[in-house]
Amino acid sequence: MAATLEECDRHPIPGEQKFCATSSQSMSEFIESIFGPDAPTKAVSTYHIKRSESDDVAVQNYRMMGIRQIPSPKMVSCHTMPYAYTVFYCHYHKSDNRVYRVSLAGENGDGVEAIAVCHMDTSHWGPNHVAFRVLGVEPVDTIRVG
User: Fold this and answer.
1) What average pLDDT does range 56-77 have in this prediction?
2) Hey, which residues does 80 pair with through a beta bridge?
3) How far is CA 77 from CA 20, 34, 58, 71, 127, in A?
4) Angle CA(78)–CA(83)–CA(88) in degrees, nearest 5?
5) How many CB atoms are closer than 10 A to CB 7?
């Protein structure tokens, strides 16, 4: 819970707008403040398709079966955060981002439809950002793709 409070109190990085929502209504209001009240929006999320009979689905190897880019000129990400009640960490980056739907197949027959976001410019992020620690990478100005 302390990490959630710290993240919610942290100042946004340059080009970022952020908000910790404690209800679906406040999350919707933040998203509307980014896109505007009449802008068309589409919500996407990761979901697990349970196909196996095994109870142990948490840890297994997955194979990528397919990937497709979701057109998204503007994108707001909202993540659930550990806390005593519902908290969504929502943020919008003005820099170039790409959104993908990735189809995964588990070794026991399970499937996952995952959403992946690539931030193409992380040069303003702190070098100790959790994303860099998890991925074992450093900030870069621009990611060159294919």
Assistant:
1) 87
2) 88
3) 11, 11, 24, 15, 21
4) 15
5) 16
> Which of 4-8, 50-54, 132-136 shows the lowest per-residue confidence on average (mean pLDDT)?
50-54
Instruction: Provide the CB-side half-sphere exposure for 20 (13 A, CA).
Output: 16
Let me know: does 77 contact 45? Beta carbons within 8 Å: no
Q: Pick the closest to residue 43 from 76, 79, 89 (CA basis).
A: 76
Q: Which amino acid is at 9?
A: D
Q: Contact 78/85 with Cβ under 8 angstroms?
A: no
Cβ neighbours of residue 13 under 8 Å, at least 6 residues apart?
A: 124, 125, 126
Domain ranges of the chain: 2-121
Instruction: Count other C-beta atoms under 10 Å from residue 10's C-beta.
Output: 10
Nearest residue to 19 via CA among 87, 84, 99:
87
Q: Is the pLDDT of residue 127 over 90?
A: no
Long-range contacts of 70-74 (CB under 8 A, 24+ apart): 70/44, 70/99, 70/100, 70/101, 70/115, 72/97, 72/98, 72/99, 74/34, 74/35
State what percent of residues in the chain have pLDDT above 70: 90
- Higher-confidence residue of 57 and 93: namely 93
